[in-house]
Amino acid sequence: MMGPHGVLGFLAAVFPLVATPGASLTLLTQRVGTGDRRHGPAVVLGTVTGLYLHASLAAFGLSALLLRSSQAFTAVRLGGAVYLVLLGLWTWRDGGRAGAPATADGRARSQGQSQGRPGPRPRPQARALSSTYRQALLGNVLNPKAASIFLTLVPQFLAPHRPVLPQVFELATAQALLVAAWLLAWTVVVDKAGALRSPRAKAALHRATAAVLVGLGLRTALN
Questions:
Q1: Separation CA 208–CA 217 (nearest Å)
Q2: CB 18 within 8 A of CB 178
Q3: Do 80 and 206 contact (CB within 8 A), yes or no?
Q4: pLDDT, tens digit, 9 for 90 and up, residues 121-130
Q5: How far apart are CA 156 and CA 138, in angstroms?
Q6: Which of 10, 97, 119, 204 is the most exposed place for a label (fewest CB within 10 A)?
Q7: How far apart are CA 143 and CA 77, in angstroms?
Q8: What are phi and psi of 15, to 5 degrees?
Q9: What is the domain extent for residue 200?
Q10: Do residues 183 and 44 touch, judged by C-beta distance below 8 A?
Q11: Is pLDDT at 98 greater than 60 in this prediction?
């Protein structure tokens, strides 16, 4: 195992990157801010899964091969950019639905409750937790900067006389815990923002999220 000084040094170096708003935090803010905090852990799991995939590739040298091939790196970068733009456009489309007036089913349920009768059961969530998990996973896997952490930053904290694989996964676990704590803290903050519950606020949040995702995608494509 690595010493605590090495792990703490790595966490101090990687924290500014973790704290920089990106696709995971944007997705979390939009999902949790529109009414269901259960999407927060789903974003965390998707992001952490992607992180371990990058760690696995780096540990076995595949990420180094990818970054040495300019064509492969460009393909991954453009694939991630396209995904973010499409996710942004999809989120913008959902923004119109979030701001739509209540449906007949919703009004019937409200009237039934006001008269002491249970109304019709609400429909299942249109956006399943598994969908949020997949979007967070893809957003991390298709981000070349996530791979570059394990190729540029992690090697600076590895002891050359020790096996590489355990050290890489030890640092990956430390980063995963940091990412999870950061995103879960934001889940609590966003969930407490009750002003985001109104239909108008939900629609505005969807569209702001869409704009950020499209912007991230364009920046990824142009960098």
A1: 14
A2: yes
A3: no
A4: 444 454 588 9
A5: 27
A6: 97
A7: 7
A8: -60, -45
A9: 4-222
A10: yes
A11: no
Domain count, the chain: 1
pLDDT at 217 over 60: yes
**Quick one: which of 165, 160, 176, 154 has its CA closest to 60?**
165
Distance from C-alpha of 31 to C-alpha of 87, rounded to nearest angstrom? 13
Residue in the block written with tokens 């364009």 = 218
- How far apart CA 29 and CA 36 sit, in angstroms, is 11
C-alpha to C-alpha distance for 18 and 156, rounded to whole angstroms: 18
Q: HSE on the CB side for 215, CA within 13 Å? A: 9
Q: Which amino acid is at 54?
A: H
Residue with tokens 């990106």: 22
| 88, containing H or E segment | helix 70-98
pTM score: 0.68
Q: How many CA atoms within 13 Å lie on the side-chain side of 145? A: 15
Task: Encode pLDDT of 1-43 as tens digits.
Answer: 677 888 998 899 888 888 877 888 888 988 888 778 889 999 9
Residues in the chain: 223
Euclidean distance between CA atoms 214 and 89, whole angstroms = 7
Q: Among 21, 20, 209, 32, which Cα is nearest to 132's?
A: 32
